[in-house]
């Protein structure tokens, strides 16, 4: 007589409360992604989620991983949207009581000597509705306008020779659309990078000799920007480049050099951030 091991995941939970999102985070996989006419293999970090019915105790985690592996076993070079859509469909089909699946993929990349982290997410509903987001993280540097003006006030220094403190800043740009993510990725990524780089006091430099460092500091302290300034500038110029049906979120994190905390600024027209 064949014995079947118990499937505890299918048991009713003690507390019958539906779970909005459950799954796995931080799975590493190499994925071939088509960028324009070229194919590039990226080491990706992947998160997979579904919603869970109140009558079920747990998610079948192996089904999530197997759905991903089955898609990757084709060894094809994926368009970003195709990979996310196909994997989300597979995940949803393995959990019959779930109505929603979600996949997040992130990887580090370099375009035109600019290093950034790309995040892509895709949500699929059983009723066929879908939504995707593409976001990038860029690093730059800012200098403080307030410290500069206060120093100038007390020391009566010339503006261009007035010092101030500087810090690294991180800019997150998120594009949201109910349409194909490849449009966001291929059509607007370079624009987002260009606008983002120009929104800082200056961009980070990998190497500088002594004279270059002097010029870099001089330029940076004479283009002082609050985190709020960077946030508004990036939003203003990028919004002008986007169609009206593409949502935009800008977030800036300033890693303060003279304070024991970080500063953030955020502006968004995405639904999740309307109060």
Architecture overview:
The protein has 275 residues and is an alpha+beta fold. Helices cover 30% and strands 36% of the residues. The chain has helices at 61-72, 80-94, 145-155, 181-199, 210-221, 227-239; strands at 19-35, 38-52, 100-111, 114-125, 130-143, 166-177, 202-203, 247-254, 263-268. Strands 1, 2, 3, 4, 5, 6, 7, 8 and 9 form a nine-stranded antiparallel sheet that branches. The longest helix has 19 residues, at 181-199. It starts with 18 loop residues before the first strand and ends in a 7-residue tail after the last strand. The model has no long low-confidence stretch (mean pLDDT 92). Keywords: Hydrolase.
Quick overview:
This protein has six helices and nine strands, in the order ββααβββαβαβααββ. With 275 residues, the chain is an alpha+beta fold.
Could you give the topology of this structure?
Blueprint: E1 19-35, E2 38-52, H1 61-72, H2 80-94, E3 100-111, E4 114-125, E5 130-143, H3 145-155, E6 166-177, H4 181-199, E7 202-203, H5 210-221, H6 227-239, E8 247-254, E9 263-268
Antiparallel strand pairs: 1-2, 2-3, 3-4, 4-5, 5-6, 5-7, 6-8, 8-9
Helix pairs in contact: 1-2, 4-6
């Amino acid at each position: 007589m064949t014995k079947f091991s118990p499937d505890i995941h299918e048991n009713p939970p003690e507390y019958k409360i539906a779970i909005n999102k459950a799954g796995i985070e931080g799975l590493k996989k190499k994925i071939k992604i088509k960028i324009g006419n070229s194919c590039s293999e990226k080491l990706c970090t992947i998160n997979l989620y579904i919603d869970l019915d109140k009558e079920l105790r747990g998610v079948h985690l192996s089904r999530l991983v197997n759905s991903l592996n089955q898609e990757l076993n084709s060894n094809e070079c994926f368009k970003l949207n195709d990979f996310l859509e196909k994997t989300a469909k597979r995940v949803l089909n393995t959990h019959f009581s779930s109505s929603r699946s979600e996949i997040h993929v992130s990887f580090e990349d370099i375009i035109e000597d600019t290093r950034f982290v790309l995040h892509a997410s895709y949500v699929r509903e059983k009723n066929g509705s879908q939504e995707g987001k593409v976001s990038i993280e860029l690093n730059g540097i800012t200098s403080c306008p307030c410290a500069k003006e206060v120093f100038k006030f007390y020391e009566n220094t010339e503006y261009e020779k007035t010092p101030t403190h500087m810090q690294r800043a991180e800019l997150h740009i998120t594009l949201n659309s109910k349409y194909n993510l490849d449009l966001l990725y291929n059509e607007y990524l370079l624009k987002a990078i260009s606008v983002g780089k120009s929104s800082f006091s200056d961009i980070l430099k990998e190497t500088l000799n002594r004279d270059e460092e002097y010029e870099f500091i001089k330029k940076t302290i004479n283009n002082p920007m609050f985190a709020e300034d960077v946030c508004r500038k990036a939003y203003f110029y990028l919004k002008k480049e986007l169609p009206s049906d593409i949502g935009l979120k800008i977030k800036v994190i300033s890693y303060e050099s003279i304070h024991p905390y970080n500063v953030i600024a955020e502006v968004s027209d995405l639904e999740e951030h309307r109060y």
